[in-house]
Design brief:
53% helix, three-stranded antiparallel β-sheet, 570 residues, alpha+beta
Length: 570
């Protein structure tokens, strides 16, 4: 029994193993079939979705972007302004002026401890205040600095400080540490000599004599003694400038009277104001050299320069106005007032250019990039030119009309179909007084393109008359009339004898016509009318004296007895 039982158990176990093996084989075959299906599905999906292999091989690769075509990356600017020599020096002075030597020490190329670097910054500031006399606006505002002879590309000379017999070159070096952008710092070579030279500097007069309150207290970050000095110096300089202007005006007045023999008061050209301002600027510039600190000297130098530029521009404008007034009077005396419009145009352009130049100088001193300003002016000029086409057309028309001397004030002209006298040639238009005493305004742009006849430019005026005599005028009478008119024209003082002629020209429909042709030597039309009237009256006397008369302007019937033919012709 036990044996049978074990055999059944073995049979069962063999069946189980066989069934499990069959199941495993079925699962394996199913897996294989699923793999085959999945691979086919993936293959088909790859064909549909993915680009073909030949397309990938034939597709051109994108060309690499040339390095020179890539936009240049803008250099990272240092927040403390140390990216340029100009920013380094001004940042150092600004921090040292506020006694912030901890920040000022960051502008030094020194590896000393923080306390020693701050003391070194104070000593450098002292040396620059006492011995450095330079214009800091000339420092480079570019990250690369400027090339100077005798210095390497990464070094720039600020100036030479003179302390007694010692000279110290204030140098800046462009230093790059690690991956950080390069910075301009005060050179370690300069800093080595700073302590020794700073020890030789003695306290100044102000430090010894002024109260500490004025030296230590500040108002708007400026020491009080500087405010006091400015409040004293500015009124003093203004008074000196007023006195010097009066003295200069008196001296120039006497010199002009001697040269021109003028006895009366001279005309006021308005030059006292700009001359006074110019003298005031010069006094500020001289006074700036007495300032204790380099920052104060730099500030007052800038003030003097700005005031000087304003004074020079103001003086130039006044001189331009005075010169234009003199030239306008001369043009009126020489009877060419039409050029006054061109003179006014040149005067305005000259003053505008002076104002623009002065503004650009002031902006440059303020650190403004003039390239961007000029570019903006160019774009703005183009926009204004498009917006003001008619105005510019009229301005150029004024230049052409005046420069070509087409018309002048007082000229009698025919403009188109209008006759009139020119009253004014302005910058934009020309005013004409018509024969009906109305005013016709013609834009100069149109006037330059119109047909214009100027009667004032003629040197002589043509006398051309057709005189019709009656048909009963005899040949003897006709010859007498012709001879009398010719004698009249030859003897008249205002008739050019070379041009004068009188001819029997035709048998008209109701008259025998004579043509009188002559030039009268005058350019004034009223005078011509007077001479023509005198000539026509004398011609009428000649006709009456010959026994004939003027024909009627219509056919007439004459009752006359015909003369018999000669006997030999009958």
């Amino acid at each position: 029994m036990l044996g049978k039982t074990s055999v059944r158990k073995n049979d069962v176990s063999h069946r189980d193993v066989n069934s499990l093996a069959a199941t495993a084989r079925a699962v394996a075959s199913a897996v294989e079939s699923m793999k085959a299906r999945s691979s086919s599905i993936l293959f088909l999906g790859g064909i549909v979705l993915a680009p073909p292999a030949f397309a990938q091989t034939l597709a051109p690769k994108p060309a690499p972007v040339a390095e020179e075509n890539k936009p240049a990356e803008k250099p990272i600017e240092d927040p403390q302004g140390r990216s340029t020599p100009y920013g380094t020096v001004h940042g150092f002075l600004a921090a040292a002026e506020k006694h912030d030597y901890e920040r000022a020490a960051e502008y030094l190329d020194s590896k000393q401890p923080s306390g020693q670097k701050q003391e070194l910054a104070r000593q450098l500031k002292l040396i620059m205040d006492r011995g450095l006399a330079v214009n800091l606006d000339t420092l480079s505002r570019e990250p690369e600095g400027k090339l100077e002879e005798g210095l390497r590309n990464t070094r720039e000379l600020v100036g030479v400080a003179q302390i007694g017999s010692d000279r110290l070159e204030i140098l800046l070096d462009r230093i790059q540490r690690g991956a950080n952008p390069p910075l301009w710092l005060f050179s370690a070579e300069t800093l080595l000599s700073v302590p020794a030279i700073a020890e030789k500097i003695q306290p100044g007069w102000m430090e010894l004599n002024l109260p500490k309150v004025l030296l230590e207290k500040r108002l708007l970050s400026v020491q009080l003694y500087r405010w006091v000095a400015a409040l004293i110096a500015i009124p003093l300089f203004l008074t000196i400038a007023w006195l010097l202007t009066r003295a200069l005006g008196f001296t120039l007045g006497r010199a002009v009277r001697r040269l021109t023999s003028e006895r009366g008061p001279l005309p006021d050209l308005g030059l006292r104001g700009p001359i006074r301002l110019l003298i005031f600027a010069l006094l500020i510039r001289l006074g700036s050299t007495l300032a204790v600190s380099l920052s104060a000297r730099q500030f007052w130098t800038r003030v003097a320069t700005v005031v000087g530029v304003l004074a020079v521009v103001w003086l130039y404008i006044r001189l331009t106005d005075a010169l234009a007034a003199v030239m306008a009077r001369r043009l009126r005396r020489t009877n060419v007032p039409g050029r006054i419009a061109l003179l006014q145009l040149l005067q305005g352009l000259s003053k505008a250019l002076a104002l623009i130049a002065g503004a650009l100088i002031i902006l440059y001193m303020g650190g403004v990039n003039l390239t961007a300003v000029l570019t903006g002016l160019g774009v703005g000029g183009i926009a204004i030119a498009f917006a003001a086409q008619k105005t510019l057309e009229n301005l150029f028309g004024t230049i052409m009309v005046v420069s070509d001397r087409v018309v002048g004030v007082g000229d009698f002209c025919r403009i188109g179909d209008t006759l009139g006298t020119i009253e004014e040639v302005g910058l934009r238009s020309t005013r004409v007084r018509t024969l009906a005493h109305t005013v016709l305004t013609v834009p100069n742009g149109q006037l330059a393109g119109m047909s214009l006849e100027n009667f004032a430019t003629r040197q002589r005026i043509l006398l051309n008359q057709i005189i019709g005599l009656r048909y009963d005028t005899t040949a003897e009478q006709l010859s007498h009339v012709l001879e009398g008119i010719r004698r009249l024209l030859a003897q008249h003082p205002k008739v050019e004898p070379e041009s004068a002629r009188v001819r029997f020209v035709r048998f008209g429909g109701a008259s025998v016509d004579l043509e009188v042709f002559a030039y009268v030597a005058t350019s004034v039309f009223p005078v011509f009318l007077e001479i023509q009237e005198d000539l026509l009256l004398q011609i009428l006397h000649i006709i009456e004296a010959s026994g004939t008369g003027l024909a009627f302007p219509f056919p007439a019937t004459y009752a006359a007895k015909d003369k018999a033919l000669a006997a030999k012709k009958s």
